Structures are given as structure tokens and as C-alpha cells.
Amino acid sequence: DDRIADLLINKEVVALFSGRSEQGQRGLGHRSLLVDATLKDARERISAIKKRAWYRPFACSILEEDFSRYFESNGIKKSPYMLYAFKMKDPIESVVSQGNYCRVQTVDKENTNYYNILQAFKKKTNIPFLLNTSLNLPGEPLVETLEDLKITFENSSLKYSYLPDIHKLCYK
């Protein structure tokens, strides 16, 4: 997890491929593209891979224990499925939309691999969140298999993928 945090600190985008894929169109830490949300060009880095329009907002994943420090939660303590948008107290441009709202995923220890990455990143940077979007290319479903991941590598500028279930960091 420290190696992944180091890649993120060095402005790299990392694909996380862990366990079974999520249901639906959200990458919740099993099939995710991750980047340091505080980078000035974080949105552009992800958009280059996903070929998304510049104006489409991205989501933020944050350690559950740090959620209320960064977001106006209105009494809500967690949001593990990215179902709600919250106002960010000190907005980070790459993850907020108009009005400084952000679709947020809170991550706890049950989402072990992703939680460990966020913990390692926080330990090194004091930042408990990352920009997180689904691991897929335009018009394609979420990456489901290692073969799908290979195709994603071949058809994008993505350079790194972390496969914690087999303890492997893959790169182009």
C-alpha cells in the first residue's frame, strides 16, 4: 500500500482491481481509477484515460473517520455507496461541481484494500481522500476480468494497476 501511495504522490493514476466488481456504474474501491485529488491537473489526468468531457465532475473517496472534517454532513455519518452529494468545506476543484458539492464515498475498514491505500496516502501526505472514478473506458462496462483490464491498458494511457488480491503492482 505504501508503493501505491508513493505512485499517487508522484502524480500517477492507479487502477485498483480488487475482489469482485461492484454492482452498477460506481467504482467503490474494487474497480477504481485513483489519483491525488489535490493535483491541479487531477481531473485532466483522469479525463485523458477515460476520455471524459472536461466539465463532468468526479467523486471523492475519504476515510470515514475524516468525513465530517472535510464535508458538511448534516448529521449523516457515512456514505459508502456514493449516493449523496455533500458540500466540501474547503473545496478541491477536481472533485466538486457547482456550489462546491461533491459525490462522496466514505471508506471504512470493511473495504480493506482501499482503506489501506487511503491510510497509507494519509500517513504520507496528511490527506485522507482521493479522486475516485470507475475503472472503465467510454461506452464500456466496468472492468470485470483481468482480460478486461489488459484491454483497458492497451486502449488508454493508464500505466499502473494494483491487484492486492495477488499482491501485484502491474505497469506498462
What features would you describe in this structure?
By secondary structure, the chain is an alpha+beta fold. 26% of the residues lie in helices and 24% in strands. The protein has 5 helices and 9 strands; from the N terminus they run αββαβαβββαβαββ. It has helices at 2-9, 42-50, 67-70, 112-125, 146-154, and strands at residues 14-17, 31-35, 59-63, 71-72, 84-88, 101-107, 129-134, 160-163, 168-171. A hairpin with a 4-residue loop joins β8 (160-163) and β9 (168-171). It is globular and about 40 Å long.
Topology record:
Elements: H1 2-9, E1 14-17, E2 31-35, H2 42-50, E3 59-63, H3 67-70, E4 71-72, E5 84-88, E6 101-107, H4 112-125, E7 129-134, H5 146-154, E8 160-163, E9 168-171
Parallel strand pairs: 1-8, 3-6
Antiparallel strand pairs: 1-2, 2-7, 3-7, 4-5, 5-6, 8-9
Helix pairs in contact: 1-4
